[in-house]
């Protein structure tokens, strides 16, 4: 696509202005140059080996038995216990991952970003927390017998360390890949993926310890029941804890991204982080100081808070749909979009219907339809950034590019839900042609 600028210096200047505004460049480049210039490529190149190191180091810490100065031995997590614990922890992680991926459907991130975010919580965040919390626990030990010595790190140290480590990946993505992260719902979904990755590995550790203890202690009559009790406690009843606290930081980041004031951009993430830490401290304190039988009132209060959060997310989805409709209306009034584009793209269930129907019509149709929805949504968000004043020069040119790409895909993708069936209509087979009539050979008379 031509941009109307022929001077290479002006092209380079325009691309720099677009880059500073968080917009992709207008100058076409080969795939390898796009890859080398992509922050996501370098982030992946650095994080994947780091993730592998974190997992191996945690395994070396948790696998062997530990002998304390008083002669007591803490059994390590053997491979069989880790496999069983991973099986039980997998289902909670899978359910929450599907929930957060479904939530991030208006302008979904790339699957690689989803994976890196989940692995950050599962590998890097747990590695940081296990070392910092262990060091802090040793620093807070006293020489006298104190029943609260084991609860102090969990209440006063672990919330700060864990919430900071889980939210670090959000700041990395926003700084290095801010082109794609413009939706508040998207930031909340990414925070949930990081938190559920952390909870996944933490549950493996807790389940594994229960399994090893039950297999090596004769007083435990039914090891399977003991494991299931821990699974129900951490994997069902209190499974909302880590996602809930990390979402507080995500809400602060979402407010900061949509604000034009520098003070709001600084204080909003800090306030969200402190709220998440306070909730985490309260959660750990209640769980550490009171027996499980006395926690029903607190559990109901926590469920009420989760219900309020779910209601907020539902309202956030409605607000996201309304924003897309209003911002696309600007282009409809200019004659660049159709009336039905506003209705279809801003409707969550209509978008799902389009993608589902395209899936049954082949991978090419699905890809073109998903691309069409993604481009129209990006057009709406780019326009929203323009109206808020959070994007610099190059946004108008980017909108023109998106409109042209949308029109190119319109005839190749599914764009309308009225009269659309999920399964493609069957083609009726034409009846076989009737056989030609046969006649007896003519009798030739001489």
UniProtKB/TrEMBL annotation:
PANTHER family hit by this protein: PROTEASE PRSW (PTHR36844)
Name this polypeptide is given: Protease PrsW
Molecular function, one GO term: peptidase activity
Biased composition annotated in UniProt, kind: Pro residues: 432-446
Pfam families for the chain: PrsW-protease
Transmembrane annotation, as ranges: 40-61, 81-103, 112-134, 154-175, 187-207, 240-259, 271-292, 298-319
Protease found in the keyword field: yes
Disordered: region residues: 420-446
Gene Ontology BP term (one): proteolysis
Keyword tags: Hydrolase, Membrane, Protease, Transmembrane, Transmembrane helix
């Amino acid at each position: 696509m031509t941009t109307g600028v022929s001077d290479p210096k002006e092209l380079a200047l325009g691309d720099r202005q677009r880059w500073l505004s968080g917009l992709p460049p207008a100058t076409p480049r080969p795939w390898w140059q796009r890859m080398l210039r992509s922050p996501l490529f370098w982030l992946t190149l650095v994080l994947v080996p780091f993730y592998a190191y974190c997992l191996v180091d945690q395994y070396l810490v948790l696998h062997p038995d530990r002998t304390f100065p008083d002669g007591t031995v803490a059994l390590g997590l053997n491979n069989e216990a880790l496999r069983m614990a991973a099986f039980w922890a997998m289902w909670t992680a899978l359910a929450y991952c599907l929930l957060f991926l479904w939530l991030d459907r208006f302008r979904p991130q790339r699957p690689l970003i989803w994976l890196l975010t989940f692995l950050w919580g599962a590998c890097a965040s747990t590695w940081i927390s296990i070392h910092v919390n262990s060091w802090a626990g040793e620093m807070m030990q006293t020489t006298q017998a104190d029943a609260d010595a084991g609860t102090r790190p969990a209440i006063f140290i672990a919330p700060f360390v864990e919430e900071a480590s889980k939210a670090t990946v959000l700041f990395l993505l926003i700084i290095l890949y801010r082109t794609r992260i413009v939706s508040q719902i998207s930031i909340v979904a990414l925070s949930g993926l990081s938190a559920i990755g952390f909870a996944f590995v933490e549950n493996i550790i807790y389940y594994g310890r229960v399994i090893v203890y039950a297999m090596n202690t004769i007083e435990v009559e039914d090891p399977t029941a003991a494991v299931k009790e821990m699974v129900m406690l951490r994997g069902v009843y209190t499974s909302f804890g880590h996602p809930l606290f990390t979402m507080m930081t995500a809400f602060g980041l979402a407010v900061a991204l949509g604000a034009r004031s520098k003070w709001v951009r600084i204080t909003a993430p800090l306030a969200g982080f402190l709220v998440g830490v306070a909730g985490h401290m309260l959660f750990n304190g209640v769980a550490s100081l009171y027996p499980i039988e006395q926690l029903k009132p607190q559990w109901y209060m926590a469920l009420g808070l989760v219900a309020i959060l779910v209601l907020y997310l539902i309202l956030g989805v409605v607000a996201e749909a309304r924003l897309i409709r209003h911002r696309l209306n600007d282009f409809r009034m200019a004659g660049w979009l159709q009336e039905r584009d506003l209705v279809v793209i801003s409707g969550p269930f209509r978008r799902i219907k389009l993608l589902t129907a395209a899936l049954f019509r082949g991978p090419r149709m699905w890809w073109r339809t998903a691309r069409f929805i993604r481009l129209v949504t990006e057009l709406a968000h780019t326009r929203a950034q323009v109206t808020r004043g959070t994007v610099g020069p190059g946004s108008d040119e980017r909108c023109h590019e998106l409109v042209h790409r949308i029109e190119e895909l319109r005839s190749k993708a599914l764009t309308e839900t009225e009269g659309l069936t999920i399964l493609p209509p069957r083609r009726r087979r034409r009846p076989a042609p009737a056989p030609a009539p046969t006649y007896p050979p003519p009798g030739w008379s001489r």
